[in-house]
Amino acid sequence: MTLTQLDYIVAIDTHRHFATAAEHCHVTQPTLSMQIQKLEDELGVLLFDRSKHPVVPTETGQIIVAQAREVLQAARRIPELAKESRDEVGGELRVGIIPTLAPYLLPYFIGAFMARYPAVTIQLQELLTEQIVERLRNGLLDVGIVVTPLRENNMTDIPLFNEPFMVYAANGNPLLKKTTINPADLTGEGLWLLSEGHCFRDQVVNLCGGNHQGRSALRYETGSLETLVKLIDRQDGFTLLPYLATLDFDTARKKQLRSFAGIPPVREVSLVMHRSFLKRSLINALKREILTHLPTELRSQRQQPV
């Protein structure tokens, strides 16, 4: 048994296709297939059901692949320990970030991070939370920037900051007659939401107590907060926005914003990794750079999570 063979079975489990796994491992498909067959012969078990499309691991194969992931993670940690002992920060960092954070948080720190660590190649992917978790589980991402808690097994998180919610309403909406907003004010028709799958949608629904009726004549699904804002400007109604999404608003739009009374509801933004995560020095460097460049008002938010 070799680490290369373990790498091959993990690739097949991740991609569920022999040719794609071989391409990912930079070998020919016959080479990969031969090594898998040798490993199965050595172990005396069938690891994959080749009769199914896509290919799936057998019951025993699932257990062995899970252990192989642990072994590979531990093996890849060894050169990292050597790097850390030399105070080196370099290599590739694969980062997933949710759409309701990406356009608003990344500009604050990404340029400074790349300038400070020129030996690091950073790969950014804008994904939904469940996609980030799946890619972390399969080793296709190193770290995610998401809203927590996730309540996912085998994941660990590092909280970064708490981001308040703001109310954005159309001109003439009754909510704008109030100086500040209470959650009880957010019932009734007129609430615009992101499409299913976005964690921010779930948080907004939770905050509004599930009592919203939505738009009666128009059903529109979008993953863009900016689209919601423009629809409200032209149509009517209101929505909730994360604080960072409002910082670039012009004077007119700022007049359509309202904060919450008292301690505002917030969402907790964190770095999330697999339990046996690698690239710790890189992830710690990413954390420091994010916290250094956050708007000062986000560094000491009291927490009332949604």
Automatic annotation (TrEMBL):
CDD domains: PBP2_OxyR. InterPro entries: LysR_HTH_N, LysR_subst-bd, WH-like_DNA-bd_sf, WH_DNA-bd_sf. The keyword Transcription applies. Pfam families: HTH_1, LysR_substrate. PROSITE patterns: HTH_LYSR. Keywords: Activator, DNA-binding, Transcription, Transcription regulation. Gene3D superfamilies: Periplasmic binding protein-like II (3.40.190.10), Winged helix-like DNA-binding domain superfamily/Winged helix DNA-binding domain (1.10.10.10). It comes from the Bacteria. The keyword Flavoprotein does not apply. Residues 1-58 form the HTH lysR-type domain. Belongs to the LysR transcriptional regulatory family. This is LysR family transcriptional regulator. It comes from Fibrella forsythiae.
